[in-house]
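Request: When convenient, would you put together a sequence paired with its structure tokens?
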Amino acid sequence: MSAETSYADWIAVDWGTSNLRAWAMSECGTVKDKLECDKGMSGLAQHEFEPTLIRVIEPWLGTAKTPIIACGMVGSRQGWAEAPYRSVPTTPLGDLSPVATTDARISMHILPGLKQTDSPNVMRGEETQIAGFLADNPDFDGVLCMPGTHTKWVHISAKEIVSFQTVMTGELFAILSKHSVLRHSAEAEGIDESAFIETVSATLSRPETLAAQLFQIRASHLLEGTENATSRAKLSGLLVGAELAAAKPYWLGQNIALVGHPRLNDLYAKALSAQGLDAAVHTGDDMTLKGLAAAYKELAP
């Protein structure tokens, strides 16, 4: 490595609440190396972000200034530097926020999140996945379902995000399955897919029964010996069914694509298929990297 070069032409970073992921990238978009660690935003004070990043990416740095494009909670109010929200309707990518650094080897930029003032909502990180999706599907007109801790339903038209809705399905599942009375019934590795689909459809038809049906999971386990995998499937089905009921104005009669973790994509694809909807499936990590690459292209002269 000469004095004026670095191993990475630029570095892509996805810095979330719990984890930090980084990719050493070539100018043409090839991944040369990747790293992941548990140094997420929630465990760092503001002054710790730069040294933490440098420790992770230092093997990729030379003396040349290396551009870094980051997305996620690193740009939140509690992160390294706040990248202000942009209002929808808008394209997923906007002006990158430059961040002052003490290390002369890096040039740091953070992607802004998006906000919706009519029916208040925000997102950070998902806008980058949307940009990656649109890079591959520029003519898409419809709805993205982005399952996760906070699932997003996003209306896309003419390459713009028109509106979006957030549903806390993943977080509710984690709380109920680990910290409520249902933890005794829902501890399981697998899931009963038929019970999941049946419960989704029943809850979608009558979402007002959700609270009562939740305790019945525990009662059935105690009185009927329902297997944990079935109880876990019913808990998931209740929450996803209630989510589909709330998001019905988004998905009814629309083209739908899923962008998320393969396991969650599979569950949501099955739930939507039971309602007669076929959804294209895309891995969230792939879309994040493609979105960061699209942002780098806009930054590069």
Remarks:
- The longest strand covers residues 160-167.
- Residues 13 and 22 are 4 Å apart (CA to CA).
